[in-house]
Write a structure and sequence with these properties.
A: 2 domains; B: 453 residues; 2 domains; transmembrane helix (chain A); transmembrane (chain A); membrane (chain A); DUF5819 (chain A)
């Protein structure tokens, strides 16, 4: 095998201590590689006898650096378009307040991505994943279900909306902001014989009151 | 097939049938011995490792350059995923990110710049070992800082950035290799062996060829000192978790040990370190190969459970999602073709589920590999996921056949070489570096060294 290729390091010619060192390395690497692959397998496989018995060990090994999720468009692809929209309550210079109309933030991202061969993560993932993070950590009544994760997702979505709306809107200063998702199911394929109601439904989130002064940090991008 | 020779009626007259297990113990022994010789004797799959290195370094470099205008929004101090939110999340999951060590804009710009430079270093294979560690630090720092900005492509880059640190990924197609070859060509034949060994070190040591041969390597020492100072500061400031402290210090000290052994103990200690590096490399490559199989397997298995993949309409839906349709008329035209939608939906599941099993047959494997790369190239355009697709193609590339990779290397290298003039032949019979580097000049090396599949 190696004979045609000159002198690779030959274990056979080594002294005993050197051979022991090599043997230990082979053993350690073999155990390490198999342990790693075993853990990754249990992490990506459906919940099973082994992975439920050793759930803690698997979780502690995999998170945070070896986390992975390959449910790409699976088990079923998303079948609805979520558009995150936002509006603000602004205080006019004359002291009156006014509620603006809804601004479609997702539509702005989509417009950026149209006919763009290299869309940015800021258009593709930011709002989309912030919304799914929020819905994963809140129930349909917008009550938190994941402890600190719910707080983080709520603050994250609020920051995005605040940054995109800016501090001044319709000639007034933004005081409160609100987000909603416009959910539109994708029509079933014409040849499938199935139909689905493609009417847009809305999920409204509670108003967020913005902190008075430090809001200036959140630059509109 | 032995049955035809023995008429069924006479089967019991044949006397004792030799046990099919006879000699099994010996064969197993021999197989283990052969396997040990392989995994200690060489870092296997030099071309596959190099193409994976180049693929992921290129993916991440292009991504960083593309997002340069958006870097602050994604990873910087003004991101809506604010420093405060990131710190709360990281305090819970203990992910590694240098970006949260300091809140200033200067620190953010420095880390982003290091990420870009280390990607370029890894891409060209200059001081590959050091570059691979910096590359991993850059990837983890940015991705873990803003984990909700990423997608599946980032996930693959994240894993491979860690795995690549353990591979000898600069054996071929690297500046390290080219410098070592030039040094070897200039030197007397007697010192060629030494230079050859240096090429395989990729310890990130050695600058000019002359200093490389002496083993002093001032540039390498300077780089090492800079990184050592950085690590001392990070440790002193208490920024590193225990695991990361051990890992990074071990890496730094190993590099110093490697340098010292090469310079002062070129005999057996040198061989032992070389063997150890080969073993670690081969273990890491096994992990990479199985990881890619697991990606496809799980992606396929999960799809099988979906009703839309079962009825063959799954592809239709992403083609109608606003987030994944940069070219709506193209997407809608494709989605409107019921037969194509079904063929691609079924084909995707079949290929993903079947791929790991086709590794036992080179020809079938290569056909499926080509199909998967083609599908990812299409995804890049149609779904607007160029960096995800590039990362997946880079991962797929670990399964490319050696013959194809060497041919590809020659096609790329030929115009480069003719511009810089003929390169001196450094092949000497029995030189494994020469075999690995210049296939046209030496006898064809034994295939087993190069193809992990």
């Amino acid at each position: 095998m190696q004979s045609a290729e000159g002198p690779p390091p030959q274990v056979a010619t080594l002294s005993l201590p050197a051979r022991i060192a090599v043997a230990v390395t082979v053993g350690a690497v073999a155990v390490g590689a198999l342990l790693h692959l075993g853990m990754v397998f249990l992490h990506v496989a459906p919940s099973n006898t082994l992975s439920t018995q050793h759930a803690t060990a698997v979780r502690e090994y995999i998170y945070p650096e070896f986390e992975q999720n390959w449910k790409l468009f699976a088990p079923d692809p998303v079948q609805q378009n979520n558009h995150v929209q936002a509006r603000a309550e602004v205080r006019k210079p004359d002291g009156t307040t006014q509620t603006t109309g809804w601004v479609d933030l997702t539509a702005a991202d989509v417009a950026d991505m149209r006919h763009n061969p290299i869309p940015s993560h800021s258009d593709q993932n930011e709002l989309r994943r912030a919304w799914s993070y929020y819905t994963d950590t809140h129930n349909d009544q917008n009550q938190p279900t994941a402890g600190s994760g719910s707080d983080l997702s709520d603050a994250y979505l609020r920051n995005i909306v605040a940054a995109r709306l800016g501090t001044e809107l319709n000639g007034g200063t933004v005081v409160r902001i609100q987000a909603r998702a416009a959910v539109t199911p994708v029509a079933r394929p014409s040849w499938s014989g199935q139909t689905v109601d493609t009417t847009t439904t809305y999920r409204e989130l509670p108003w967020w009151t913005l902190p008075a002064a430090p809001a200036g940090q959140e630059n509109a991008s | 097939m032995s049955e035809p020779r023995t008429p069924a009626g006479h089967a019991e007259d044949d006397g004792p049938v030799p046990s099919p297990f006879a000699g099994l113990g010996l064969a197993v022994d021999r197989g283990i011995a052969r396997g040990l010789t392989r995994i200690t004797g060489a870092a296997l799959g030099p071309y596959q490792t190099a193409i994976v290195r180049i693929g992921f370094a290129l993916t991440w470099l292009l991504f960083l350059l593309r997002e340069f205008p958006h870097r602050d929004e994604l990873y910087g101090p003004d991101s809506p995923w604010s420093l405060d939110l990131a710190k709360q999340l990281v305090a819970g999951n203990h992910a590694f990110t240098a970006l949260l060590w300091n809140d200033s804009r200067g620190w953010f710009e420095l880390v982003y710049a290091v990420a870009i430079v280390s990607s370029a270093m890894l891409l060209v294979g200059w001081r590959t070992r050091t570059a691979s560690v910096l590359f991993m630090i850059g990837v983890l720092s940015l991705q873990n800082r803003s984990v909700f900005m990423g997608d599946g492509g980032d996930n693959v880059v994240h894993l491979m950035a860690i795995y690549l640190v353990f591979t000898r990924c600069g054996q071929v197609w690297s500046v390290d290799r080219a410098l070592a070859d030039r040094a070897a060509a200039k030197a007397q034949p007697a010192s060629e062996a030494a230079a050859r060994n240096e090429a395989e070190d990729e310890t990130g040591s050695a600058g000019r060829p002359s200093s490389r041969l002496l083993g002093a390597d001032p540039v390498g020492i300077a780089l090492w000192v800079v990184l050592a100072v950085a690590l001392v500061l990070a440790t002193a400031a208490g920024k590193l978790s225990t695991e990361w402290k051990i890992a990074l210090w071990a890496g730094l000290l190993l590099q110093a040990l490697w340098w010292a052994v090469r310079r002062y103990a070129p005999g057996e200690p040198r061989s032992v370190l070389d063997i150890m590096a080969n073993v670690v490399h081969n273990g890491a490559m096994l992990v990479v190969v199985v990881e890619v199989c697991l990606i496809y397997s799980t992606a396929g298995w999960y799809k099988i459970q979906g009703s839309k993949w079962e009825d063959g309409t799954a592809l239709y839906y992403p083609l109608h999602l606003d987030d994944f349709t940069p070219w709506p008329s193209l997407s809608h035209a494709l989605a409107g073709n019921s037969l194509m939608v079904m063929l691609i939906s079924y084909g995707t599941v079949i290929v993903q589920v079947a791929f790991p099993f086709t590794l036992f047959n080179r020809r079938v494997k290569n056909v499926l590999l080509a199909a998967m790369m083609l599908e990812h190239a299409s995804i890049a355009v149609v779904l607007g996921l160029p960096f995800f697709s590039l990362a997946m193609i880079a991962a797929d590339a670990v399964f490319l056949p050696t013959g194809f990779l060497r041919w590809l290397g020659q096609q790329v290298a030929r115009p480069l070489k003719s511009r810089t003039g003929p390169r001196p032949a450094v092949a000497i019979p029995g030189s494994r570096s020469a075999d690995a580097e210049a296939p046209a000049e030496g006898p064809p090396p034994g295939e087993p060294v190069s193809d992990p599949i």
